[in-house]
Amino acid sequence: MSDSEDSPSAKRYKLEITSDLEISPILIDSYQDNSIQDTKIFNDPIHGSIELHWLLVKIIDTPEFQRLRRLKQLGASYYVYPGACHQRFEHSIGTCYLAGELLMHLRQKQPELNITEKDSLCVQMAALCHDLGHGPFSHMFETVIAELRPQIHWKHEHASVQMFNYIIEKNNLMPFFEQVGLNQIDIIFVNELIFSELNGQESDQVNL
Fold it and tell me: Does the pLDDT of residue 4 top 90, yes or no?
C-alpha cells in the first residue's frame, strides 16, 4: 500500500527534497528564470559528444528543422545500398560542429583576423541550416524541379535561406537572437554564407 502524504516516509521524502533545494538555490533560479539558457550535447556517431550553443538548439528544436530527420542524405541510394540510411538531420549537426572547430582554430592561429564569438556563431548557424531547403530525396528533387520547371532555376540553397528566415519569424526567435547580440545584418550574413549568390556574386563562389 502506498504511503499517505502524512506518513513518516512521505514526510522524510519531502524533507529530503526541501533540503536539496535549499542546498542548491541556483538550481531553483535556473528552473524559474527562462532567460538562462543551456547548451545541449548531441551524441554523434563520428565526432562523439557535440556541445552546441543554446541558440543553435533553439533552431534545431523547431518543427521545420526536425523535418530533416526524414530526409535521406544520399537520396534514393538507400534503395540500392541499405546501409546508406543517414539523414540530413545528423549531417547538419555534424557540419555545424566542424564549422565551429574550423573557426576555433582560425581564431587561435590567426588572431589578426579578429574573428569574434558572434562571427563564429553565425558561421555555425549557416552550417547548421545549409540543407534546410532540400526536398524529398535531396538532390534528386532538384533534378526533378529542373525538368518540370526549367524557367525558375530553383536551387536548394535558395530554399534553405527562405526556410531559415521563415524559422526565425514563425517561431519568434528574433528575441533570442538579440539576447546574444545578433541583428538583421547578422541574419543577412548567415543568408549569404548559405547562398553566396544572394550578395551578387557569381555561382563560382562557395556555398555551404
Answer: no
Q: Which residue has the cell 514563425?
A: 170
Helix boundaries (H) for 44-87: 54-60, 63-66
pLDDT tens figures, 42-101:
999 899 999 999 999 999 999 999 999 988 777 777 778 788 777 889 999 999 999 999
Give the CATH class of 38-199.
mainly alpha
The whole-angstrom separation of Cα 71 and Cα 19 is 48
CA 114 and chain centroid, separation: 24
Instruction: Provide the grid cell at 161.
Output: 535561406
Distance between CA atoms of 116 and 107, rounded to whole angstroms? 8
Q: Where are the domains of the chain?
A: 1-36, 38-199
CA distance 89 to 87: 5
The owner of cell 530527420 is: 69
- How many C-beta atoms lie closer than 10 Å to residue 188's C-beta? 14
Cell numbers found for residue 58: 533553439
Residues 125-143 have pLDDT tens digits of: 999 999 998 777 666 667 7
- Cell readout for 151 is 524557367
Residues forming the active site: 156
